[in-house]
Amino acid sequence: MSVEEKGYFTEENSVEVVTSRNANARDARLKQVMEVVTRKLHETVKELEPTQDEWMEAIFFLTRTGHTCTDWRQEFILLSDVLGVSMLVDAINNRKPSGASESTVLGPFHVADAPELPMGANICLDQKGEDMVISGRILDTDGRPIENAVLDVWQANDEGFYDVQQKGIQPDFNLRGIFRTGKDGHYWFRAVKPKYYPIPEDGPVGQLLGALGRHPYRPAHLHYIIKADGFETLTTHIFDPDDPYIHSDAVFGVKESLLAEFRLKDDAVRAKELGFHGPFWQVEHDFVLAREKNANTESRAGASGTL
Ligand code: BEZ
Ligand code: FE
């Protein structure tokens, strides 16, 4: 039996020795994942040649990351966000047909049970911030309005915190709401102009950003999840293009197509109609949903079934 056949571990054959041990893996995808991860990880170690102390520092960093996770805080997702991995997974899983709105990260502050509100409702419940009215249409890729599309929207308050970060300080469901479109696919609601805010920075991920000379800020944005029967669910944001952090989002979530226009309006008549007391911000932004792939496949299967 040769040395290779005996499977003794050497610096040179490390990848083969480890991956060949997984030959009987029950799950082919797990086997493939571990083969790639092992190869890339060994490549990294061979290139960096860490000292034992450096390797332990990496282990302790990951340990602290795990210890920082609670029922409401996921430090590993935050790590994936600041490494650009969340956006990469999002991009791979949301390749859209031409003309459809682009997706971006979900983030940790969505809540599942926000109230459904009448179109035009004001989602700002703490009376803080600069008034804003947001409107637009939900369309298909042929430009037709989508009826019964459900928009779930949420944003941080004027001080850069989501309601769930300030329980007992902000009213429950402050700056959140669910809206349903009618026949014309139109939506509108009132809110306040969002501000930039830092991602949670009091844990190991914040320390890593600090050590790398990176700031923790996300540029001002509003979150949307838009669902409609027969269409792919769109998880996205709109961003303020004039935000100081628009070109350096801590989690790489900005895409050019997601920049909205925030216009400052000084129109006393319109302000009064909207229940505002002075100048206000106006944002108009349409969203285009891609048809569900399965819906197409089914209709194709149905069509071929009739041949
Ligand atoms: C957010 O936009 O809510 C967010 C996204 C990623 C990390 C932290 C916050
Ligand atoms: Fe956010």
Automatic annotation (TrEMBL):
Q: Fetch the PROSITE patterns from UniProt.
A: INTRADIOL_DIOXYGENAS (PS00083)
Recorded hits in Gene3D superfamilies, A to Z, give: Aromatic compound dioxygenase
**Pfam families per the UniProt record, alphabetical:** Dioxygenase_C, Dioxygenase_N
**Molecular-function GO terms, alphabetical:** catechol 1,2-dioxygenase activity; ferric iron binding
Keyword check for Iron-sulfur, yes or no.
no
Q: Identify which cofactors the protein needs according to its UniProt entry.
A: Fe(3+)
Q: Which UniProt keywords apply?
A: Dioxygenase, Iron, Metal-binding, Oxidoreductase
- UniProt record, GO biological process: catechol-containing compound metabolic process
Q: Which residues form the Intradiol ring-cleavage dioxygenases domain?
A: 134-162
Q: Which family does it belong to?
A: Belongs to the intradiol ring-cleavage dioxygenase family.
Protein name, as recorded: Hydroxyquinol 1,2-dioxygenase
Q: Could you tell me which species this protein originates from?
A: Rhizobium freirei PRF 81
| Taxonomic path | Bacteria, Pseudomonadati, Pseudomonadota, Alphaproteobacteria, Hyphomicrobiales
